[in-house]
């Protein structure tokens, strides 16, 4: 993972609608959800949903698969894990990792 990919993915997730869609797909697991189910859950117009899904797909965070006439969307877990890893891989590398006790309880 490099900084350009991470920044594009974080930018895509910086929109409340896209973040909500992504969290829904992460919760759905490997089976994913149909576009219709996502639309029902989030109560957004099809064109709006399509726009937001396109951004998530273009950044590699979501995949789509056609099953007959149904489009199934899935969180792409390797991309999610790479992004999270990129954010925490060097945690406290310059100072050692001492977390204040008030942060460990949260």
Automatic annotation (TrEMBL):
<dbReference type="InterPro" id="IPR011991">
    <property type="entry name" value="ArsR-like_HTH"/>
</dbReference>
<keyword id="KW-0805">Transcription regulation</keyword>
<feature type="domain" description="HTH arsR-type">
    <location>
        <begin position="1"/>
        <end position="95"/>
    </location>
</feature>
<dbReference type="Pfam" id="PF12840">
    <property type="entry name" value="HTH_20"/>
</dbReference>
<dbReference type="GO" id="GO:0003700">
    <property type="term" value="F:DNA-binding transcription factor activity"/>
</dbReference>
<keyword id="KW-0238">DNA-binding</keyword>
<dbReference type="GO" id="GO:0003677">
    <property type="term" value="F:DNA binding"/>
</dbReference>
<dbReference type="InterPro" id="IPR051011">
    <property type="entry name" value="Metal_resp_trans_reg"/>
</dbReference>
<keyword id="KW-0804">Transcription</keyword>
<dbReference type="InterPro" id="IPR036388">
    <property type="entry name" value="WH-like_DNA-bd_sf"/>
</dbReference>
<protein>
    <submittedName>
        <fullName>ArsR family transcriptional regulator</fullName>
    </submittedName>
</protein>
<dbReference type="InterPro" id="IPR036390">
    <property type="entry name" value="WH_DNA-bd_sf"/>
</dbReference>
<dbReference type="InterPro" id="IPR001845">
    <property type="entry name" value="HTH_ArsR_DNA-bd_dom"/>
</dbReference>
């Amino acid at each position: 993972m490099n900084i350009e990919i991470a920044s594009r993915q974080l930018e895509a997730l910086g929109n409340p609608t896209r973040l909500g869609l992504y969290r829904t797909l992460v919760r759905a697991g490997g089976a994913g959800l149909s576009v219709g189910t996502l639309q029902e859950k989030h109560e957004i117009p099809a064109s709006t949903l399509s726009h937001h899904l396109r951004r998530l797909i273009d950044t590699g965070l979501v995949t789509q698969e056609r099953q007959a006439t149904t489009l199934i969307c899935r969180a792409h877990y390797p991309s999610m894990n790479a992004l999270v890893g990129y954010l925490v891989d060097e945690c406290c590398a310059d100072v050692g990792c001492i977390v204040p006790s008030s942060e460990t309880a949260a």
